[in-house]
Amino acid sequence: PLLRAWLQRLVDLGVDFRTRHQWTGWNGEALIFDTPNGSTTVTADATVLAFGGASWPRLGSDGKWHPVLGENGIGTEPLRPANCGFDIGWDEHVGSRFAGTPLKSICLRFRDTSIRGEAVVTQGGIEGSAIYALSASLRDEIESAGRAVLHIDFKPDATGPELVSKLQQYRSGDSLSNRLRKAGLFPAAIAILREGAHPLPSDATELAALIKNAPLTLVGTRPIDRAISTAGGVRGDVLDPRQMLAHRPGVFVAGEMLDWEAPTGGYLLQGCFASGRQAGHGALAWLSR
Fold first, then answer.
1. Would you call the peptide bond into 156 cis, given omega within 30 degrees of 0 as the criterion?
2. Which of 221, 83, 85, 78 is closest to 141 using CA atoms?
3. Buried residues in 132-142 as b, exposed as e (16+ CB within 10 A)
């Protein structure tokens, strides 16, 4: 309903929508489009490019603009997944049994950054809001080192000694899994602990330390078309303060096409709206020069 109301408001303001038009580049100063009726060109007094990134190809954000700009000498950075999940290569037991299981009230740590929040076990790895907040650093580490080791504190509200005390309160014959459940861990967390330590330590102090600092080795990012957003795009040094391309006067760029990334979807939306406003004002200034 919001989108339909928004579109109707734009129509009422005189916006002319041309659907099923694929921009393929320039012919001199004219824009070239592939349409259901063949190729056509449009000569514009001002152009704002706002194609999005490459993470929603089914909705049009497929990144096909990226090589077109490069072929026209416009500086860009490669498009990469952002706010994305990661591959771990779980043991089949973890991926098949616990895919879709939330990990609630955990704390994730990578190097000196810690994030409280939630994550979700996937068939091949992990994703979720807390993961997305660390995704840029994790992705860069995987690209440079081939892997990234993320640590999970499954009980961030309990101290190490408190966990030791709980783990020591068991009856003869209790399995290690029962001891962990009595300490407040859910089956998915127990499976992840076993994934990182073979076998699990039976000593309460060592076990508590593992619960507070369980390692997960991430070996890859999920494909870019499964990410929430993308990093990379048009470099800032080829734009003027109005977001106009230095080598294409009258052509402005806005949104996720720009070489920046936001830590979450809310910041991403705000950044896209703000850059769109900046490009719009730039185009107005260009037209009234």
1. no
2. 221
3. bbbbbebbebb
What pLDDT does 102 receive?
A: 95
What's the pTM value of the predicted model, to 2 decimals? Answer: 0.86
Residue 172: per-residue pLDDT: 76
pLDDT for 231 equals 94
Give the model's pLDDT for residue 96. Answer: 87
- 120 three-class SS: strand
SS3 content of the chain, % helix, strand, coil (to 5): 40, 25, 35
Query: SS3 sequence, 199-210?
Result: CCCCCHHHHHHH
Tokens linked to 190: 């127990």
Residue whose pair of structure tokens reads 């990093």 in the numeric block: 231
Spatial distance between the Cα atoms of 158 and 186, rounded to a whole number of angstroms: 15
Which pLDDT score is estimated for 198?
74
Q: Count other C-beta atoms under 10 Å from residue 67's C-beta.
A: 11
d(CA 195, CA 252): 50
The phi-psi region of residue 89 (left if phi > 0; otherwise alpha if psi is between -120 and 50; otherwise beta) is left
pLDDT tens by residue, 62-113: 999 999 999 999 999 999 999 999 999 888 788 889 999 999 999 999 999 9
Looking only at the bridges linking them, the beta strands covering 220-221 and 86-87 are antiparallel
Using CA atoms, how far apart are residues 204 and 265, in angstroms rounded to an integer? 40
The answer to whether residues 31 and 47 touch, using CB atoms and an 8 Å cutoff, is: yes
* C-alpha span between 30 and 280 (Å, rounded): 20
CA distance 14 to 200: 67
